[in-house]
Amino acid sequence: MMWLRRKQPALRGDGLNVFHVDNDNRVIAFHRWLPRIGRDVVVVASLNESTFYSHSYRLGLPGEGHWQEVFNSDVYDNFFNPSVQGNSGSITADGPGWDGMPNSVGITLPANSILVFAKDFGDF
Length: 124
What we know:
The protein is mostly beta strands. It is built from 1 helix and 8 strands.
């Protein structure tokens, strides 16, 4: 997580918008950015015991186009997880406005997970 925070400056910035709170499914998402610069990042946290498979969970995004999945807590560094769920490293926001955001995308959301999406892989 420290590496991710260093690579994605928006995670250290002042811009914060909690735009998605789904109490029924126990999911929250927030948008972080750097004012005047951008570098948008979206963090999605699921406290649901079930996985939303096959891009079935609709989520708003602040910008269209390609977003990198820069963190997926369902992928373990030192332990082989034979049933990893995720978005194959990226998503493409091309859906209609959703959650008060101008675009949306269907994502695969693993159970009890945190996903982080960014417009780029980041740099120091």
